[in-house]
Every structure is written in C-alpha cells, then in structure tokens.
Design a protein that fits this description.
Elements: H1 2-13, E1 36-38, E2 42-45, E3 47-51, E4 56-62, E5 66-74, E6 96-102, E7 109-116, E8 121-127, E9 132-133, E10 141-147, E11 150-158, E12 171-182, E13 187-190, H2 201-204, E14 206-211, E15 217-229, E16 235-246, E17 251-257, H3 285-288, E18 297-298, E19 302-303, H4 324-329, E20 337-347, E21 350-359, E22 368-379, E23 382-393, E24 398-410, E25 415-426, E26 429-443, E27 446-455, E28 466-467, E29 472-483, E30 492-505, E31 515-524, E32 529-537, E33 540-542, E34 555-557, E35 560-568, E36 575-586, E37 598-611, E38 614-633, E39 636-655, E40 659-680, E41 686-688, E42 696-712, E43 715-729, H5 736-745, E44 749-757
Antiparallel strand pairs: 1-4, 2-3, 2-13, 4-5, 5-11, 6-7, 6-12, 7-8, 8-9, 10-11, 12-13, 12-14, 15-16, 15-44, 16-17, 17-20, 18-19, 19-28, 20-21, 21-22, 22-23, 23-24, 24-25, 25-26, 26-27, 27-29, 29-30, 30-31, 31-32, 32-35, 33-34, 35-36, 36-37, 37-38, 38-39, 39-40, 40-41, 40-42, 42-43, 43-44
Length: about 750
C-alpha cells in the first residue's frame, strides 16, 4: 500500500501549476488583487443581450507559469446545482463557468475551457471553419468552491497548453469572452455578448493585453495494456508510448510508437442499409491532440482527414490464398500501427504542419501508409490554406492523393465567405470538388446562410478522409430570426424561427427531391422547450440508392411531407425527461400495388439523479416504416414493413474526482416483414417482380462497463469489460425479446481489458 501511495505521489508531482498560486477555488493570493476584472455580463441564451441580474465578476492575469482566471458568482445557496458529469459532457444540470480564449487573436480558432460547480471539466475548440470540436482534452486544471451566497471557480491555463504564435515583445493580445451558466433558469451570460454557437462569435470577442512568457513542455506517455476476447480467444498484450513536445516558441511535435489505439469509449450502435457510410468521431487521444490545423470539413458532408481510417480493418482476399482457413482465422477488425508522427509550427501569420502514420503488415494483408502536409496564412481579413494528403495502400496496390486549397474572407462583422477547392488523384484519374458558403448576420437577431457543393462522379476522398457522397451538386439556403419581445404575462421567453431550402442532384442533372424545412423552437419562462418542425420533399430521383449503377442510375422518388415535435421538460432536483414524435407520409407509387410511404418515430428519454454523483439515463426509441425500400443488387429492391426498437441504458457514477464508473449499453431489434420484390427500369420506375423475398430480423447488442481511475492529470487506469454481437435471420416470427436476446446470448466479442496511461 505504501508503494502504491508513493507511485501516485510521484506522478502527481509531475504536474506543476505555478509556485505561488494554489488552484483551490479560493482567490486569496495577492496576485488576484492586480488582475484585470470584468463585472458586466449580458444574456446570450436565451438571447436578449440584457444585463445579467446575477452579479458575476471575472479576474484574469498571467505570470511566467500561465494564464489564471477566477470567477466570483453571486447566487443563493438553494439554487446552486452541482451534479457531476463526464468530461466534455454537455449538460444543463450543473452551474458552470467558462473562459473562451483565442490565444493569437487571429480569429482562426478559440479554445473553450469550462468547469462545473461539481468540478467536471469541459474543453473544446471552436474553429472559424469546420465547426465545434469536443474531442480535444487540454492539460489545464480548474477548481470550484461554495461559499455562503456565492461560489468561486479558479482556472490555471499553462502557456504550453496549445501551439501559440510568439509576439516580439513581452505582451500578448488575446481575444476572449467569459461565460456563466446558471442551471436553475438555464441561462448563459457572456462578458462580450456572444458565445460559440453564434455566427458573430469571433468578431464579438473582446481584446485583452496580458504579460507574455515562453514555456516549453515535454510530456512522455508510456502505456501498458492487456486484453482478452473470450469468444475469439484472441489475446493481446501491448506496450508503447506517446511523446508530446511544445517548444514554447511556436513549434510542436507529437509522436507515438507501437500505439494502443483501442478505444475505451464504445461507439453508438447504428443499423445502416443506405448508400452513405456512417461517420464516427475520433476518440483516441493521440489524434485529438493538436489536430485542429488539419481540420478541413463541412458539417457532416465531408472531412479531408478522417483519422478513424488509420488503424481500420485490413483488407483480405482469403479466397485467393492457399491457406483459406488460416487466413479466415487471422482476420482482425483493426490494423496494428507501427508509428504516427505530427509536426506543427506557427510563425507570424503562417502555420505549417506535417503528419504521417504507418500501419503494420499482417500475415495475410499489408498495412497502409498515410501522409499529410498543411499550410495556412492569415492575410489581414483573409485566410489562405493548402493541404495535401496521400495514402499508399500496399495490399491493393493503389495510391491516392488529394489536394485542397481553402480560403476564408471576413468581409465585415456581418458577412463571411468560405471556399474549398479539392482535387483527387487515384487510378490515373483526376477529379474535382468545390464548396462555397456564406454566413450573413444583418442583426443580432437574424441570420442568412447559403452554400454550394460540387463533387465529380468519381471524386475519391475516402481513402484518408470522409465524403458522404460523390457525383453531387448541392445548393442550400437557410435563415432565421429570434423573437424576444413577448408580454410580461406571456409563458414564452424566446422563440426561434428558422427555414432551410436544399436542392441536390448528380452531376448529370438528375434532380433529387428538393427539401424545405421550417423549424421553430419555443423556450418557455419555466425553462422547458418545445420544438416543432414542418418539412416537405418534392418528387424527384434518388441517385444514390443503386450505388452508381450505370444502367440503373436512379429510382423515381415520390413526394413526402413530415411533422416533428420535440419537448424538453424542466430540470427537477432528481429527474428530467424529454420526448420526440415524428410522422412522415409519401404518395403512392402507380407502377405497383402501393399504399404510400409512412414513417412514425417515437422517443422517450429520462435522466435520474439519486445524488449529485450518480446519473442514470434511460431511452426508448421506436421507428415504424411502411414501404421501406432497400437496395439488394443491380436493379433489384426489397419493400418491407419494418419496425425498429432501440433501448439504451447508461449509468455514470463518480467518487470524488478520481474514480469514475461508466456503463453504456444499446440494444436494437429490427423486424422487416411483408416483403415485396421490386425491380427498376432504366428510367427509374419501380415494378413488382416475381422473385422470392424473405422477411428478416436483425438484432444488435452493445454493452460496456468501464472503471477509470485518475492517477494524476492525464494519467489514467482503465479497466473495461465489453460485450457485443449481431444476429440476422430470414424469419420474422421471432418476438422482440428474442431479437434483443440473440446477439447478447451469442456475442461475437466479449473483451476484458486493462490499460495504464501515465504522464511524465
């Protein structure tokens, strides 16, 4: 026991945060008396820019160790809420403070650092283009403390937390906003009148001059891991390391050798019969550190680099080998990685980065090599960038290259343009892609946006990146207004009214259904929320369902209309809930016996809090779909009546700030019955065929329980048990309970694993 305590003490001592300031939620050191302070805050959610009625004061100063931020929040003891959450969990259940900092003041990215009254940390990156990224975990600390009639939060942000430009003098101009969230009335207030969800976020940040220092950082993260799959009998014992070096002068190196890229977090279960690949976010620590420079993306439509490709399942051709059985037994759903390396630097108005990763060769497969080069320059109110990616797939004997030029122009505080020009090269074929977008905010309470996308038919991005579809022309227009001037006796606090128009086609001009959506959100004065949405799709052509079959490039799509209702209840002391219902109807097909398309979706979810350190989430989803159309092959389709049930059970338990137990489970049961076999002609019309088609059921089970112990900041012990499987039967006679139980009782994986990740 003494050895264990000494072990923990050593690793804890490796993390220092200043010699004079103790981060304990008490602003009692003399340095705080000399800090810059702000005490005027404006309500930004619900958005009305009214001065905050709750007194809040934020203090900011810097010394040779880093930047320090302190909040003093006046609040009655009874209204304070301090429910514990996972790191980076977005929750309305606990009071919190946040500081957003653009360290270089160039408007390219800002770092969001927040702490709840329960000492739960949240950090993310807000990019000028590419959205909001929560997968970054920074090396910073914060503590809170309750007092009689107020509470305090205290932040320490080391100089070497991120890659920063180094000014020539001893002063640094940062841009920032300080924010406070009050759970009792679910309001956000901001010192600059903006927050990360606002279109004018970067333009509204306040400027502040602070003392500047240079501080390097060298972190060494060795790890040991062991896992065993009781189903496949596969065992894996591994050791490796990650090295993070920040020079403090605008240069940073990240390297990993023999990495363990096994995930301690399980992905959500998705049953996908569509032509579009399911996109999963990155959860592995190495790829989330200092990766923002390489982010060129557009919502969920594309991302030039998708790091989940690295270490993905190898390619096999067991049927072409002499040792077929041995090859089949050697199949793995991941690739071992020899190393990964990333170098970034920032000097003046220019950023530059290099990235490479190499997968290991398998017994019956060969690994892939990944390379990327990135540069970006600020030219006043414009930003110009370039990126090249290259993948060498040794097993398939292919090489793929993508070149991208990206451009951002800030015309004014109200208007910003974004442009990406992309070229792919693979199989001796060069293809073109383009995206252009504008965001216009004529007032604080209204906005407009528009976008154009174009991708050639055989544009190749998915060797290293992600593209939801190629052979694509997209035109989009959206806008919205906020209504706040309701009568004092009204139940309504704020109403958001939005619209979206979307037109899509392939590059030959075959028009997909045009879509219009009108969305409304009412925020009531009791903090509950109601959303209602109306949508319509025109008749058109589905150009993706047949997987680009040259003889049958599309099917005719009938018009549809939908309505959706969402409700979020108020947060009570021990529980809350939300529900959703949606109905979509479509016209009948004339070429076969059709009753018309119909989809119904229902969701009910609840969260329960027996105490501040325990949270239980329950969710049930039901989806019924009549005339559900799925592609089989060539011009053959199946039409089914389907019903899908999803049950999710999550539990998070915390013991102080060191111990964490997380249970995450999802069970899905899909039943497809009343099949009709259909074929399409070359003009896209569907006709009933005489082919035999079976009903089917599909079940998926995913269960994980994880214990996490924090040895020291960014040093963890994980103990994980995972179990999951999938079943498929050409028989619809099974009950829902049978479909749920089959993948659980006959799992494809049952994994026990343990992992130490330590920070030196």
């Amino acid at each position: 026991m003494h050895k264990l305590n000494l072990f923990i003490l050593i690793f804890s001592a490796c993390y220092t945060f200043g010699e004079n300031i103790i981060i304990d939620g008490s602003l009692d050191e003399s340095e705080w008396t000399k800090a810059f302070s702000v005490n005027e805050f404006y309500q930004t959610s619900p958005y009305n820019l009214e001065k905050s009625k709750d007194q809040t004061t934020v203090y900011i100063f810097s010394n040779e160790d880093g930047i320090y931020v302190g909040f003093v929040n006046n609040q009655s003891n009874l209204s304070m809420s301090s429910k514990k959450t996972l790191r980076d969990e977005s929750s309305s259940l606990s009071d919190r403070n946040a500081i957003n900092i653009d360290f270089d003041g160039d408007g390219n990215k800002a770092y969001i650092l927040a702490v709840s009254l329960a000492d739960s940390l949240f950090d993310a990156i807000k990019l000028k283009k590419g959205g909001f990224k929560t997968d970054w975990d920074g090396d910073w600390i914060a503590k809170t403390k309750k007092y009689d009639g107020y509470w305090i939060s205290e932040f320490y942000i080391p100089w070497n937390i991120v890659l920063m430009n180094q000014p020539s003098g001893n002063k640094r101009n940062i841009k920032y906003t300080a924010l406070r969230y009050k759970s009792a009335d679910q309001t956000w207030v901001s010192s600059s009148g903006t927050m990360a969800s606002r279109p004018d976020y970067f333009e509204k940040l306040d400027s502040l001059e602070i003392d500047n220092y240079t501080k390097s950082k060298l972190n060494f993260f060795p790890y040991l891991s062991s896992s065993k799959n009781s189903v496949t009998k596969f065992k894996n014992n591994n050791a490796g390391a990650e090295i993070f070096y920040n020079s403090g002068t605008g240069k940073q190196i990240n390297a990993t050798f023999n990495p363990d890229f096994g995930q301690a977090e399980s992905d959500d279960v998705v049953i996908n019969f569509s032509a579009q690949e399911t996109f999963y976010s990155e959860r592995r620590a190495f790829f989330t550190e200092n990766q923002s420079l390489f982010n060129i993306s557009n919502y969920d439509r594309y991302s030039v680099i998708n790091t989940r490709r690295i270490g993905a399942a190898p390619s096999y051709e067991c049927e072409n080998t002499e040792n077929y059985e041995e090859c089949e037994n050697a199949r793995k759903n991941y690739s071992d990685i020899n190393y990964a390396f990333r170098y970034t630097q920032k000097s003046g108005n220019t950023e530059f980065g290099l990235f490479t990763a190499q997968e290991d060769d398998e017994a019956f497969s060969l690994g892939r090599n990944y390379y990327a080069i990135r540069s970006r320059s600020n030219l006043g109110d414009k930003t110009l960038g370039y990126m090249l990616t290259h993948v060498d797939d040794k097993f398939n004997g292919t090489k793929s290259t993508v070149n991208v030029v990206d451009y951002v122009s800030v015309k004014s505080e109200q208007l910003t343009y974004f442009t990406d020009v992309l070229f792919s090269e693979k199989d001796n074929s060069s293809k073109f892609g383009y995206r252009s977008q504008f965001n216009y905010q004529p007032s604080d309470f209204s906005y407009f946006s528009g976008s154009i996308l174009y991708f050639d038919k055989d544009f190749k991005l998915n060797d290293f990146g992600y593209l939801s579809r190629s052979d694509w022309i997209h035109l989009g227009l959206g806008g919205g207004i906020k209504l706040i001037n309701f009568a004092k006796n009204s139940y309504i606090n704020q109403m958001d009214v939005k619209f979206d128009l979307n037109y899509d086609s392939d590059t030959k001009g075959n028009s997909n259904p045009a879509k219009i959506d009108q969305k409304n959100e009412i925020i009531f004065k009791n903090t509950s929320k109601l959303k209602f949405e109306f949508g319509a799709k025109t008749s058109g052509k589905n150009t993706t369902i047949t997987r680009k079959n040259s003889n049958f490039p599309y099917i005719k799509y009938r018009d549809r209309k939908n309505v959706t209702l969402d409700y979020e209840a108020i947060n009570r002391d021990f529980w809350t809930y939300d529900w959703r219902m949606s109905i979509e109807k479509g016209s009948k097909y004339n070429t076969f016996s059709s009753n018309g398309y119909k989809r119904e979706f229902y969701k009910i979810a609840g969260s329960f809090f027996p105490n501040d350190n325990l949270k239980i989430n329950l969710q049930y989803r039901n989806r019924k779909e009549n005339e559900w159309l799925i592609w089989i092959n060539d011009n053959n389709f199946g039409l089914y009546d389907s019903e899908q049930d999803t049950v999710s059970i999550d539990l998070n338990w915390f013991k102080g700030n060191k111990h964490e137990i997380r249970l995450k489970s999802q069970f899905v049961a899909l039943k497809a019955s009343n099949p009709k076999s259909l074929v399409s002609n070359n003009t896209g019309y569907l006709f009933q065929s005489n082919d035999s088609l079976q009903s089917f059921t599909q079940g998926v089970a995913s269960f994980q329980i994880r214990y996490k112990y924090e040895l020291a900041p960014l040093s963890y012990l994980y103990i994980v048990y995972s179990r999951g499987g999938e079943s498929f039967d050409e028989d619809s006679s099974f009950s829902k309970s049978d479909i749920f139980n089959k993948p659980w009782n006959n799992p494809s994986d049952e994994v026990y694993s343990i992992k130490f990740r330590l920070k030196y």
